[in-house]
User: Fold this.
Amino acid sequence: MNQEQFKSSWMQLKGRLQTQWVAITDEDLLQIAGDQGAFKTVLQKRYGEQQADVSQWADRWYAKWTGWYEGYQEVKSPKFIGAKEE
Assistant:
């Protein structure tokens, strides 16, 4: 997803993001505020090497939310550290 898509979907994404990725704090969400660059900075700080996994999750969430990624299935048992099982 690009910056425009990220910003326009931020209100919906931020709730799911914090629910799924528990290391992201309320303060982090305020810092991100719809900015994809800040999102990447926060991911690096909170998840280090796993930041790509969180970014991929966000991209897939966006794809599912917008309906353009047919066949998307959300992971039921996250294998990543800090990911919360739904």
The chain is about 60% helix and 0% strand. The CA atoms of residues 18 and 24 lie 6 Å apart.
